[in-house]
Every structure is written in C-alpha cells, then in structure tokens.
User: Fold this.
Amino acid sequence: MRQEPLEGPWLDDDAGRLVRPYTVSNGRTKPTAQFDLLTMVMATGERPRSYLGPDHTHVLQLCGGPVSVAEIAAQIAQPAVVAKVLLSDLVDCGAITSRAPVRAPLSSDPTDRELLEAVLDGLRKRL
Assistant:
C-alpha cells in the first residue's frame, strides 16, 4: 500500500514523523482502559465534550467501523502503547467502545486433530 508523501511542519520526508511518541500521549505510558492488540474498537457517535487534540481526532476517524488496536497503531504510525493511551482517552469520554477479543480455550494437546483440522479449514477459506 503506497502512502502519500509526508507534508506539513510535523513531518519530514527523510526523518518521518518529527513528534515523539511520548509527546502524542502527553508523557503517559499507562492507558486507563484495558486493551489487547486484538481488542476491537468502534466509534459510538458521541463527540468528546472538549477538544482532545489532532491525534485523538485522527484515531476517532479511524474508528468508524470495528477495528483492532493493532490496526490503529499501524495507521497512526505510533507504538501500540501510544495508540492504547489515545484510545483509552476516547473510551473515557464515551467517544468509542471496545470489545475484548474472544479467546478459544487452549487445548492441552498440541496435536489435537479437531483443532488442527479447524485451523486448516480456516486457512483454506482465507486462501
């Protein structure tokens, strides 16, 4: 996927984004909400009562449909912890909702035929 050339005062073609990750998250490294990389987030339609900043606005725009935390981090070109902090701010103000990933119970037998067939079937459907 080809990205558009970087523009503006905060971007540089050679160096990339000039704003450091800790600046984007206001120095915070601990989100207030619990997120996994596979947690799905989606906008609720509620607008934050106060302006949170351009990075929050960008993240909120990306949450139009269900999207994973990992995808948000990739889209904003920031470490996952920064994306989690921004997302937790949006959850706190009611602008997005999150849903933890559904985890299948782990089989105690790594050679469980039923599990391996299910994985193979899923792979065949995707390819």
Notes: The CA atoms of residues 40 and 82 lie 16 Å apart. The mean pLDDT is 81. The chain is about 40% helix and 10% strand.
